[in-house]
Design a protein that fits this description.
By secondary structure, this protein is of the alpha+beta class. It has four helices and four strands; from the N terminus they run ααααββββ. Strand 3 and strand 4 form a beta hairpin. The longest helix is centred in the first third of the chain and has 23 residues, at about 1-25.
Length: about 150
């Protein structure tokens, strides 16, 4: 009798191992092209944010088309430091253009004063790999907007 129980235990263990191994062998589908593009746009936004916070405009330029960088360069304001966060909200993918909607919050320090702003930006991304071509609305890179009331 003990021999039968031992054989039964071994068979049960073997059956369980086969079931587990077959469950692990399911085919994993690669991500869709749209998913890859969306993730690339999120990474680009984070790289832009990081370069801006570090005031590394050489790196910032690398993530922009010529049109995109010249448009942003015109709007840049002086600041001592910035805390800026991005939250991607929506990605729209067309043939050769990606539109990334990003909500953002920022706190700029300039000349001893602190300025807080928030908004929703729409980034137009082009080329491969993706680069910022222009900001259609809500640019976080044009702050701090100093509002002195006389």
């Amino acid at each position: 009798m003990p021999m039968r129980i031992s054989i039964m235990k071994n068979l049960l263990f073997l059956a369980l191992a086969v079931v587990l191994l077959s469950a692990c062998g399911k085919e994993v589908r690669p991500p869709s092209e749209d998913s890859v593009i969306a993730l690339e746009s999120f990474d680009l936004a984070e790289n832009l944010r990081s370069a801006y916070v570090k005031k590394d405009f050489k790196a910032f330029k690398k993530y922009c088309t010529e049109t995109g960088y010249s448009g942003i360069k015109k709007e840049l304001k002086e600041f001592d430091s910035v805390e800026l966060s991005f939250t991607p909200r929506w990605v729209e993918i067309e043939k050769d253009t990606v539109y990334l909607n990003v909500s953002w919050e920022g706190r700029w320090t300039a000349k001893g004063k602190t300025y807080e702003e928030r908004g929703m930006a729409v980034f137009e991304l082009k080329e491969r790999p993706l680069k910022l071509n222009r900001i259609l609305r809500g640019s976080p890179f044009k702050h701090p907007e100093v509002k002195d009331i006389f």
